[in-house]
Amino acid sequence: MHERDEKPKPVSSRRKFLFQMVRSLGMAGITGTAWGAYVEENKADPLILRPPGAPPEEDFLKQCIKCGKCVEACPYDTLRLAAPGDQKPLGTPYFVPRETPCRMCTDIPCVPVCPTGALDLDRVSKNRGNMEIPDIARARMGVAVLDESSCLAYWGIQCDACYRACPLMDKALTIDYLRNARTGEHALLIPKVHCEQCTGCGVCEHVCITQKASVRIFPRDRVMGKADPRYIKGWDKRDERRLLNIPDRFTIRTERSRRKAQDYLNDEGILYE
Asked: Which residue, 185, 200, 269, 270, has most beta carbons within 10 Å?
């Protein structure tokens, strides 16, 4: 019996087409996954903290070219560039206060090296004698938020670590002495954050002695409110100037505001809408 020579069968055009299609789909899947991960990491992180002089996050991402010069200029290795897996826009600078806070250098070396103005020296400068000089106290990297339920000072245990470490002690962070109603004998040393002075450097979070910091830094736009411009501080002459830009007519924003207050407050049903 002669063995019949088995020659490889020619791949039909239909089979070749199916193979190419499957391979293409596989490559597309892999590429899509990688691209999806890339896109996901390049989304703005709402809680990310940027270096001094950074504008709002959306504007910052438009200007930052991810050169890393600010990171190189930081003498305390506070700044780092977002790497794959950090869940932050890749290659952009940020810092983690609990690990390494901003040390508030007086010359702010991370800002002037920025080649695009993503870190703007004007945002952290003050005018003196017709000269703009760096003033790190003007930085607004974030704002400290205190968790009263875990802060030892609120428990009645004497702790003022955040207050003592604050670079702007007695300005950004003060201590209120309150009566301890539980014991009736001791004072509570309550830390109080002053948002208008807080730079968000994160030193308070860094030194907090609780297992998970009771005071933490968040981007200002995530935690701070904004009063309606029609309300002013009558005792503050500077604040009264805002009235100059307010129109005579107010905008009615809701259906309820079209009615008088005594009308809708007496309507029990509307209170539970």
From this structure: 200
Retrieve residue 84's tokens: 């794959």
Q: Which helix (H) or strand (E) holds 37?
A: helix 13-41
Residues 227, 230, 233, 238, CA torsion sign: positive
Q: What is the pLDDT of residue 272?
A: 56
Give residue-wise pLDDT tens across range 145-161.
Answer: 999 999 999 999 999 99
Q: How far is Cα 228 from Cα 233, in angstroms, rounded to an integer?
A: 12
CA distance 159 to 43: 39
Q: What angle do CA 98, 76, 63 make, to 5 degrees?
A: 85
Residue 2 is classified by DSSP as P
CA distance from start to end of the chain = 93
Q: In what helix (H) or strand (E) does residue 40 lie, and over which residues does it extend? A: helix 13-41
Q: What is the pTM of this model?
A: 0.74
**AA letter at 19:** F
- For range 107-135, the mean pLDDT: 93
- Does residue 197 contact residue 171 with C-beta atoms inside 8 Å? yes
| Of residues 91, 102, 99, 87, the one with CA closest to residue 136 | 102
**215: number of Cβ within 10 Å:** 24
pLDDT at 40 over 70: no
